[in-house]
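Appendix B. Chain record.
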Amino acid sequence: MPSIAIIGTRGYPSYYGGFETAVRNLVPHLLEMGWTVTVYTREASADGSNQHPHLKIVKTPGIQTKSLSTLTFGATSAIHAAIHRPDVALVMNVANGFWLPILRMRKIPVVVNVDGVEWIREKWGRLARSVFFGGARMTAKFANELIMDARSINEFWISKFKRGGTWIPYGGTKTEPDLSALPAHLEPGKFVLAVARLVPENSINEFLDAAQLLVENDSQVVLVGSSGYGGPLEDRARELDQRLPNFHHLGHVRDDKLLFALWRGCGAYFHGHSVGGTNPALVQAMMLGAPTVARDTVFNREVLGSSGQYVEATGEAIYKALSTLLTNPGMRAQMANSAIARAERHYSWESVNSAYEQLLRETHRAG
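Structure tokens predicted for this chain:
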């Protein structure tokens, strides 16, 4: 029975971000395929999901701040894993690249999910960007295998670091949401939705500009997400929620039943991410048929293809596209059907999990 250590997530099960979404779906598959799994986390499991006999959840210490969390928790997790020597390690986030030599010295093969281009995100200062870039260089040097969640990310790594990897995107859950889970004030097909971490590179300020124009024209607008650390974007969303009756900031939503109902029920969905590869929120929105207006980037075009509309990151452009979509049910239906078909063809969790398991098993065998 092969063993694996998973390093670099906030918790298990966690509903916070892309890495956590991937691990939450991957772990049950690995257990089913006969793996012994250790997941390193920053916080203990809260719902008893660690009761499987071959699943161990290990909480290691670290410094819980915006700039030090990944590095410090990653270091203690890597040290613990090096002591216990799993057959293979799956490491999430290139910032943990600094700790790969610890694992490799213990002859532990390492697979790294590199995520996006973290060192150009606006939320990070110069020092943090340097750390992420240094971690990426260490990852390129010491990882046995790399996972790229978008083909455009793979091309970037080949150009920048002379290392390519295996394309494995994020997946989406195919389900039929219960629209009765929607808040009473939201009518299916009549509201605009955005789901994102409240950071600048997700076009949050621009979306909030558009939201103000939308509510002035009697549209309902829902924003799901938080920054994780407060800040001016979260303050602005909270102020709009308090001041504008038709604007609703729900913060971070852990309830999939509500979140899936919002995606299925919205009349228009905005995806403003500008940095990164295949975004799990976008994939899930597609799987649930959310008619999507996206910021025009190479990453979003790779995922959405012809099933979405693309706009510049300005409040006026976002407003015009979303308001047009809200008033055109035929266009919404066509986009929804196209998005569902594309998601089922390319982004099912079944195919994603199988690709992860195959790569991990091959890496373990190669040593």
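Further analysis of this model is presented in Appendix C.
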